[in-house]
Amino acid sequence: MNKSAQLLKDKVVAGGFCIGCGACAIGSAVMRIVETDEGLLQAQVGEPVSSPAPIREEMDLMTICPMSGVGDDETVLAKQLFGPDLEWNEHIGHHNAIRVGHVANQKDREGGSSGGITTWLLGEMLQRNMIDYVAHVIPNQLGGTGLFAFGISSSDADLARGRKSTYYPVEMSSILQTIRNTPGRYAITAVPCFSKALRLLMQQDPVLNDRIVFVVGTVCGHLKSRFFGEYLAWNQGVKPDQLQAIDFRTKIPGRSANEYAFTPNRDYTKAALNKSVFAANWEVSLFRYDACEFCDDVFAETADIVMGDAWIMPYQQDWRGNNIIVSRRAELSAVLEEGRVSGAIVLSNASIEDVVHSQVGGLRHRREGLAVRLAHLDQEGKWRPRKRVEASFTQVDDARKELYLRRTQLSRRSIETFRFARSVGSLTVFKVLISGPVFAYYLRRYGLKRAIRESAVLKMIRRLLRPNRIPFILHAQNKSALEGKPLAK
Ligand SMILES: Cc1cc2nc3c(=O)[nH]c(=O)nc-3n(C[C@H](O)[C@H](O)[C@H](O)COP(=O)(O)OP(=O)(O)OC[C@H]3O[C@@H](n4cnc5c(N)ncnc54)[C@H](O)[C@@H]3O)c2cc1C
């Protein structure tokens, strides 16, 4: 085994810092991405293979890895990409245009995760001959065990398969191999750490550097184990081994945009609001990758453009959804502007404060929270990657410090507990075992009233007393859409 593969294994993977992006595995004779029994994709060092022909053994895998802290950090990479003159903000990175909005076509908007701008923009880039292909996440058509994977699209119809956010593990090694094998100009969608991995890889791989012409980023809170989707679906009676598909972002007429639902197996009779499920709130962070606790990038600072949810008033009141958009390329800002003028998209200017405010919780967790987590590892004398954030216990008070550490423990414990519950085939076992730590978290964070309101028992009673109206609403929505009637506001 070469030295950098050994370091990757001993430091990044063993330390829980691997995000399973696959950058180290493309073209490697020894690195591969495997799914663990915790539903996480992770790099693994295996027996050397000679096919496909290794292209990368001479490369330093630690430099390519986005989580090792060895290669250039996001700020350095972004400066190289966007130049020293483009305006920069410590929270959102470089920015050429900051907007908020949505696509005008109602069907496309309702079919997207937020405002549907990502799919629209990718379609425009294809139509305007700025790219030949899009690599993005679609329902898995390659077989295997994962429900989603990166795939290639080159038309609007293809692109539509990938709409919506995938809160499910995916990796890039196969799609990057496809890009290496197939000449053309590509755009690729990426969460912040995947975008950083791409940039680090492109520094060393001239073929990928030539072919990937745009990285289209998504704002990111954190990545989830496959257990997240399984847990949601199991609450609706779909057991993990019965889950074949899941829509994580089902929009509900009349609700605010952040009150979305999930739909397992494309069966809307099984759809339910996320908030009706015990501890499914993103703040509690069940099933989060350990590695996400050591990321300091929310706005995909190395992507050419980044889209997120407009979790700000008045936009979040509209169930159809809106995007926040930070563009870092004049040519992409021009596409947006032309779309606005033509009426294809509805856009308004937004301020840095607006977009920062829309992600304020995520930014706090990734910045002051990260400082605490780094200081904690340092105190324990453990290896950890170099970050842009300095280790510190002193930026926050003791209560806040405890909260951050508690969140980390809770997500780790949820994964271990779900693995056990899955093995004994009981969702109740999971809920019973995790309800104590979740209660303790809410109690510390918000006090007794909220802790009781969010408790497993109360959620269960609510579910028994209140019928799940989501399937009826979705049924009515489909019906009125079919009949061409206006949908509820
Ligand atoms: C794991 C994850 C966490 C997120 N966390 C936040 C958050 O905390 N705050 C926030 O404001 N926004 C977050 N987002 C982004 C948000 O959910 C929307 O994806 C974004 O606003 C784009 O919406 P849209 O309607 O323009 O996208 P759509 O038009 O629906 O298109 C989405 C595009 O993204 C691609 N895609 C989906 N999942 C992935 C993935 N995992 N990796 C790469 N490409 C993918 C799809 O293939 C599709 O091309 C997150 C997204 C993901 C995937």
Overview of this structure, please?
The chain crosses the membrane at residues 12-34, 420-443. Keywords: Membrane, Transmembrane, Transmembrane helix. This is Coenzyme F420 hydrogenase. With 489 residues, the chain is of the alpha+beta class. It has a domain at 3-225 and 291-360: Aspartate Aminotransferase, domain 2 (3-Layer(aba) Sandwich), CATH 3.40.640. The protein has helices spanning 3-13, 61-64, 74-82, 106-111, 117-127, 156-160, 173-181, 192-204, 206-211, 227-235, 330-342, 352-358, 360-366, 368-379, 398-424, 427-446, 448-453, 456-465, 470-482; strands spanning 31-35, 41-45, 88-89, 93-94, 97-103, 133-139, 148-153, 186-190, 212-218, 246-250, 261-264, 272-273, 305-309, 323-327, 345-349. The chain has an 8-stranded mixed sheet with strand order 7-6-8-9-13-14-5-15, with helices on both faces. Strands 10-11-12 form a 3-stranded antiparallel sheet, covered by helices on one side. A two-stranded antiparallel ribbon has the order 1-2. The protein is globular and about 60 Å long. The termini are far apart. The model has no long low-confidence stretch (mean pLDDT 94). Bound molecules: flavin-adenine dinucleotide. Residues 112-119, 136-138, 162-167, 170, 189-191, 218-221, 223, 307-309, 311, 323, 359, 362 line the site of flavin-adenine dinucleotide (FAD).
